[in-house]
Amino acid sequence: EIINYVDFINYILDRFDKIIEKNYSNFKIKRQIPRQEIWLEIDTDKLSQVIDNIINNAFKYSPNGGTITVTVWCNNNKAFTSIADQGIGIPKPALSKVFDRFYRVDNSSRNSQIGGTGLGLSIAHDIMKLHKGDIQVTSDGKNGSTFTLSFPYSDEINQENNDWEDFAE
Ligand code: ATP
Ligand code: MG
Q1: Are 87 and 58 in contact (CB under 8 A)?
Q2: CB-based burial of residue 11 (10 Å sphere; 0-12 exposed, 13-18 middle, 19+ buried)?
Q3: For ligand 1, what atom is nearest to the CA of residue 114?
């Protein structure tokens, strides 16, 4: 369906703010999200799954908590969302593998106590491809990780919706 992505992401983050209040008091979410509408054609159930996995990973792999910064912007007919944590990071050689099925970074000090199947990010990758978008990750290997989603952004959809707003006047 075609939705206002800004409302969608704020709604998801409101839900995580409540989860943080209850269970993860050493975290906070910082929003860098524009006020204006960004209309995108997405499967909201599937995309919620993507964002849920990335934010749950941020919780899982940040033993000291920290700030999870969510930034949304548009550029060159793409809409971007980055989710940055201050956790243990991902070593350079593992960066290209985290989207592989069942892959988990092998480090006894991290995954032994932290449960997971290694499927979350491969599913996220599949879902982004289904949207003709992409998911990428950067990390210096110790001071946090940043996951960036991109979607095709159509001037036409956004134009049309601006027109509907004019009709409402
Ligand atoms: P699940 O299937 O329950 O999501 P998982 O979290 O282990 O299991 P993925 O979400 O696919 O699997 O992540 C793959 C691996 O990438 C993780 O096991 C972890 O080693 C690494 N990883 C993912 N996100 C982060 C992060 N934010 N910080 C550090 N490492 C991460
Ligand atoms: Mg996961």
Answers
A1: yes
A2: exposed
A3: 7
Cβ of 62 below 6 Å from ligand 1: no
Mean pLDDT score, 58-77: 95
Nearest-5° angle of CA 22, CA 88, CA 24?
Answer: 5
User: Which is more confident, 46 or 167?
Assistant: 46
**DSSP symbol at 127:** H
Output the six-digit token pair for 158. 């956004």
Query: 148: closest CA among 137, 140, 139?
Result: 137
Which residues on adjacent β-strands are paired with residue 3? Answer: 40
CA–CA separation, 42 and 47 (whole Å): 7
Asked casually if ipTM beats, i.e. exceeds, 0.90, the reply is: yes
- Burial class of residue 52, CB neighbours in 10 A (0-12, 13-18, 19+): middle
Provide the token pair at 129.
């491809």
Distance from the Cα of residue 46 to its chain's centroid: 12
Question: Considering the entire predicted model, what is its pTM?
Answer: 0.92
* Ligand 1 contact via 121 beta carbon (within 6 Å): yes
